[in-house]
Structure formats: C-alpha cells, structure tokens
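Possible race condition, two jobs.
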Amino acid sequence: MQTSLKLKLSTFMFLQYFIWGCWYVSMGTYLANTLKFEGAQIGLAYGAFAIGAMISPFLVGLIADRYFASEKLLAVLGILGGVMLCVLPQCKTFAAFYPALILYCALYVPTLALGNSLSLSHLANPKTDFPRVKMLSAVGWIGGLVAVNTVNGAESPIQFYLAGGASIAFGLFSLTLPHTPPKKTGANVSLGEILGLDALALLKKPAFAIFILCMFLICIPLYFYFVNLGIYLSELKWENMLVKTSLAQVSDVFFFLLLPLCLRRLGYKVTIFLGIACWVARYFVLSGSVGAGAAQTALIFSAILLHGCCYDFLFIAGQLYVDDEANERIRGAAQGFIAFILWGVGAFVGTLLAGKVLAVHKLAAPAGGMNYDWQAIWRTPAWGAAAVLVIFLIFFRNPPKQEPKEVIAGRAEENFETP
C-alpha cells in the first residue's frame, strides 16, 4: 500500500510543480519583453504569488480543515486554477493582468500546503519518505521548463495555456489520492483553530520563533533570484535559457536524496545553515559573473547548480522541522503557517524589493548590451542573506531529541507512583 501511495504522491508532486515551472521563471521575460511592463510592475506581479500565500491559510482553515476532504478541495482548486491560467493571456495591461494573477495564485498556493499536509499524514516514515516523494517536484519543474522551451514560449502567452492544461489534469488526478477528511469537524472548534491560528502557539518555543524569523528574513533576498534571473540571462542572450536553468532542478534531485542522510547525521541546525550559506554563495557568484569574460558562463552555471542545496536544505528541511514540532491536530495549520511565511509575507516583501532594486539600477544608457547594473543588483541579496546566516547561527538551537514513547510512558508511571 505504501508503494502505491508513494507512486501517487510522486505523480501529484510532478504535476503540481510542472504547472509552476511552466510560467514562474519565464513570466518575468514575458512581462518585460512582450508586455513591456516596468521593473516595479514585474516585482509586483511576482508578489501576486505572495498575496495568494497570505490568503491561503485562511482558505485552508475555513474550508479544508473544517468542511471538505483535502483531495476534493485539491481537485476543485486545480480545475479552477487551470481556467484562470487560460484567462491570463487575454490580459494585456498591468491593471488587468495583476488582479487576474492574484486570483490564480490564491487558487494555486493552497495546494502546496494541502499537498504537503496530506503527504505527511499518510506516509509511514515522513522524514525519509517525504523528501523522496518531493523529489518528483524537481522533475516536474524541469518538465515545465523544457515544455515551454520546446515551444519557444518564454516570451509568449503559450506558457500560461500549457500550465492551464496541466492544472486541470492535476485537479482530476487529485481525486485518486487517499481520502483525507477534515480534522477540525465537531462542535467545540474555536474560530482561532478554524483559521489555523492555533499553530501560533508554536512560537512560544524560542528555537521555533527564531526559525520563523530567519525563514521570513531569508525570503527577502531569496526572491531576487526568481524575479531577476530570467531577465539577466535574456540580456546575456542565452539560448535555450529555460532548459539551462532547469539544471537547478537536476541538482534538486541529488540533494533530495541526500537530505534524509544530512538530517540524520547533522540535525536541523547544520542542514538549514548549509541551505542559507548556499544562498549567500549563489548571489556572490552571480555578482562575480558580471563582466567575468570567459569565466562568466561557468560562474552562472555554478549559481544555478547550487539550487538543490539552497532549496532542499532550507525549505524541505524547514517543512520537516515544522512537522516535527507540530502535533497531529495542528499539522495542517502549521504547514499553512510556514507557507504563509515562505510564500506569503516573505515573498511579498522580497519580490517587491527585488522589483524596486531592479528599477533603481536601470542604466540611463545601455552598456555592453546590458540595461541594468547587475553587479549591484546581485550584491544586494548576497549581503542580506549573509546577515540572516549570522542570526541563524547564533540564535537557533536544535530541538531536543525525543525519547521513545514507551520510555516516556514508563517514566510517567514512575512519577505517578512516587509519593
């Protein structure tokens, strides 16, 4: 049964990230070169994903945890999201495109937390099995990039039609997932629980509070990569850009396999520290690639290949840490909360700042075929990520190792019998 479950969840992850990969990287190029949006508008467009993530916990809390089984809600969100993706190409102005994109993101982002929560609920050994299942998300992202590149869709609205068709398929496939009924049905459920606010109780733990603070702070420099990389490579005239950037997800596959071993041997603190350190290295390497001559291509590829450690050792390890800290009743709320931080508030601030920094560093006159001061642009998130690394290293503490349940039970019985 677990083998069949893992196959279904792997396929689910593939489709979920195929959708995302079809449009997220190439959208910046489409908006800049086809629709001629300004840098600040491009940053706001990427921030639509963050707004969707901020809506997500309330949608999940009010609907998924209270009334509907997770797999059914995933189906509805996937199909409606597919329809909205097909509407986006009809929007040619920022005033039309931006609200339509926000609506789509509000439909898509909840599927991330719901999918993680559903997977963690049904997998027998989440710490080992979840990274292996999640590995197919990297393959799905690669598939989306390759599909868009194959049809030369980086500057074309076809990327949204591809994503829309995949989203409808994703919604239909979600109905095959194991039944996951809402956990918060019943008369004695508070409004706070419905909205997922019970997960905020985890912030009473100092280590968890520091973890959340660092996740928020690292998201600010993190989104410079997603907002600006496509534009940077377009100015460098890279051919088959989307296929080349998909090497990031090839490294994802390797680090997904490595993650369980690292968590077992190194623990959460060292693993997440390595993830943040790779973001620091990635941005300094990108900054060094500007005007680097013959070494430029090698430096950019190095930055791309760091993605597996950047993403898996930070985000996936972080999701597993949250799952360890939460009990079963608040697991869904806790995953919604971390999604709110990673893809919501942090992403909104990060994408907004990335767009503004891009606009500020636009050159008055193009130099060497470049319209922006890319060295200054990449150094900004490099120093920001370095500051987060120092905060995390000093203040975060690994959670105490939990004793086996039978040992805890025996100790409790002893204490009960002692006068």
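Job #2 (started ~2 s after job #1):
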Amino acid sequence: MPHEKALKELKKRRAKAHEMGGADKLAKRKAQGVLNARERIDHIADPGSFTESGLLARSNRPEARERTPADGKVTGFCSIDGRRVAIASNDFTVLGASSAVTNQKKFRHIKDVAAKRGMPLVFIGESSGARMPDRMGASGRAIIGQDPHEYRRLRETPWAAAQLGDCYGSSTWYACMSDFVVMRKGATMAVASSRVTSLAINQPIDKEELGGWKLLTGVSGLVDLAVDTDEEALDAVKRFLSYLPGHHNEPPPVHPVPKGSNSAAKSVLDIMPEERTRVYDMRKIVTALADKDSVFELKARYGRAVVTALTRLDGHSVGFIANNPMFKGGSLDADACNKATAFMVLCDSFNIPLIMLVDVPGFLVGIDGERKGAPGRIINWMNALSLMTVPKISVIVRKSYGQAYLNMGGGRNSDEVAVWPTADLGFMDPELGVNVVFGIKRDDDPKEFEKRVAELAQDSEAWDLAELYETQDVIDPRETRDWLIKMLDIHRQRLTGGVGEHLLRSWPTSLV
C-alpha cells in the first residue's frame, strides 16, 4: 500500500494519544465511579459527532513529550441535541491536566472558532493549575499573558462549565467567566489547592472548606448547581444550553409545549395565603405558570430571598426573577442583588425575555448589608435593569414597597406591569411606617395605632395603581399564564428577529 510507513506511524501516534495517562490511572478512575476526559465528552455529545482538534499535540518540553498525550486537554467540536458546540475536557490522568504552552494554544483555538462561528462553548474542568516548571522564572513569564483578550468576555456565545474534580488555576478562571457552572459534590474549585494554600498561610486547610460545593453554591454563589455524579453534571449542562441560542445574534430555540401545561396555572390561588403576613414558596407559583417540567432554577442555595430560573412559556425560553417570602420574608439582601443582576445579564445577552413576580417588603437593612456594599448592589441592579433591551414584564402579586418596587420592574422599569387584586403598594409596611412616622407602637395606644395604620394604608391597593395607569391591568391570578403568553407575543422583537442590543454583554462576570 502506498505510504504504508507513514500511515502506520499515524495509527501508532493516535493510539498512544487515546491511551491518555495509561491503563492504571484510567482503571483507578473507573473504580472511583468517575468518568475520564474522553468518556465525559462521549456522555454529553451526540453519538459519533465529536471531531477532535489537537489529538497529536504534546508538551513542547523534550523531557515531558512522551508523558503528555494530547497535552492533557481534549479539545474539539461536537453536537449536543443536534447543535454544534465547541468543547474542552481536562484529562487529569496526564500531569493533572496542568496548563502549559501547547494545551493553552488548543484552548485558544476552540474559543476563537466558537466566537467566530457562533457556537456555545463547554468547559469540563478538573485541573491542578499551572504546570511546573513551565511557568517558573522569567521564561515562564514569557509564556503567560500573550493573549491580551484571554479574559475578555463579550458573550458572543453561551459558555457552560462542569467542575468534576479538583479545579484550580485555569479551570477556576474559565468557570468564573461562564454563564452556567455545575459542580459534582466532592469536587473543589479555588485559586490554588488546599496544599498550596495551607503552605501559603501556614495553617491546615480542608479542601471542602476552601472550595467545596456548599461554599460555592451557598456562600460565594460562584456555582449555580451541585449534583452527585459526573453524568448528572453533564446532563445539567445539556439542559442549560437547551434554553439558550447558539449565539447572541439569534433568538433561543422554541420547544413543543408539553401536554397539561395549562392546568397548574389555575391553582395559583391555592398557593398564596389570604393572610398577608403568612409566607409561601414563590417557586411553586413559578412552576404553576411555566410550561410543564420546564423550570431550571439557578443559584438555588444563594441569595434565597429571590428566585432566578430559566423556564419556558408556550415553548419559548423566558427568565423569571421572583421574590420568595420563604426566606427573610422576601427582603432583598446584597447576595440577592448580586444574583438578580447576574441573571439579568444572562437573559439580556442571549435574547431571553424577563418576567418578574413581585412580593417584596423592601431591602434588608443592617450593618452586615452595609459591609457587603448593599447600596452599590441595589444600584447595580437598577443599572442592569435600565440597560436591558429584551422584553421585561412584571406581575405584582402582593407586597411591593419602597425602592424595591423599582428594582422589581415597577413604574416604567418594565414594558408591561400587571397586578393581582391582592397587590399591596406603598413605601413600607404600614405598621412599621406608623412607628417611623408617628413614633407609636401598638402596645402604647392600640386604638390610635390602628387609626394611623389605616391612614398609611390608604391609596395602596391594586385599584389605586390601576386608576393612575401605573399598571396596565389588574388580572385574576388564574389568568396570569395566559396574560404572560399574550404579552410576550405582543412584545416579541419583530424588527430585529428576536435579538436585543446586548448592552450588558461586557458586564463583568461572577456577580459584580
């Protein structure tokens, strides 16, 4: 056969690359119930759709060349649910998937192709950080920082990251730049490993305490979702992408409406108690209004006084920001502000209309909030809201007090505002207002207290807002789903093919 020697050499080198870090390391991972880098791609990609880029790449350092098949990072292009996606999967069996000259060139290539050709980008993280001795000394400085745009994010396409092991260095950086981050419980994500951190601060550090799932989903908010297995994490990435367009210049995909999607909306009156002081779970109302089984909540353990969720209405992707009285009575703290702002950036960047469900007593005041910069977070929210160019629709279901009335889309901060007959509008709770304005407590003079409460409660019902045309309609709660579907159709961006202006596309990532 012509060129037989060259073809045998190609076959040999391909086989060597597919061996990854060797049979022993691969067997160890299988025994731990953890997928390897190539199995992870096989799980998330449509069968037979992966085209690898850089299979025969290796370290540029002679002493490491034979130990670095694919240079520790598997990169290329595949299809997910029939749509082209760029993908990078870290191979921890090869020098801990450490970042080095060759594999960073591979990363840069698929990033560039994804941006130029309009493809989502998926990072499957597990890496030990920078490779030593590549990064040491002056020569190491000449390696890094050669791409001045490496950390510039203009959100041309959606990015998703799955953190499936020890994730340090670039795995952390790219996750923090992504639109969605899912983590397997037991994985970690931090600037540097617990061992390096322990040496740096001269005290023992537990890896879970440093960068475990509870910290990242509940305290820092850097991770959207934590799951139990690699497979669940990769399935979550697929689900997230199903709500998003392939790139920022097209609308999100439209899905069939599941049977029975309209029935739950008739039960919303059973969810919210008649007593205005009783709490309820707003997530149940979101679920009742959305297409059946379409609610995908983000950052559920972080800033819990507000719910952020991707859903579908009549098959179309929408985002919900909803106050949740189950947590802090729905009062918005600094974390909730961060969460809401980040979600608005996501929706506006990828042409997803926003719906706000309002039951908010205001902002949580106190020393802790001021230390966290709550005033700045509140105005960040307003800044982002004013820059959004996708349709914004607000439904006030109960309380809407003070500045939070504006943050949750009141006034002209939404394209349409509807209220339920149960709406309660005002600057603050009337009972608290009596104490502030008149200096009276109920125990001081119950009769006078009730009189003053009645005075402050005047002009705060749904009808009062409707008479001033500060709301476009007062609706029966059971009509909410149908009303939202009609309003979304009315406000569809026909002149631009469903595409917004993306004024938030360069907003800093990671909850600023």
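The domain at 264-423+461-496 is CATH 3.90.226.10 (2-enoyl-CoA Hydratase; Chain A, domain 1).
Logs attached separately.
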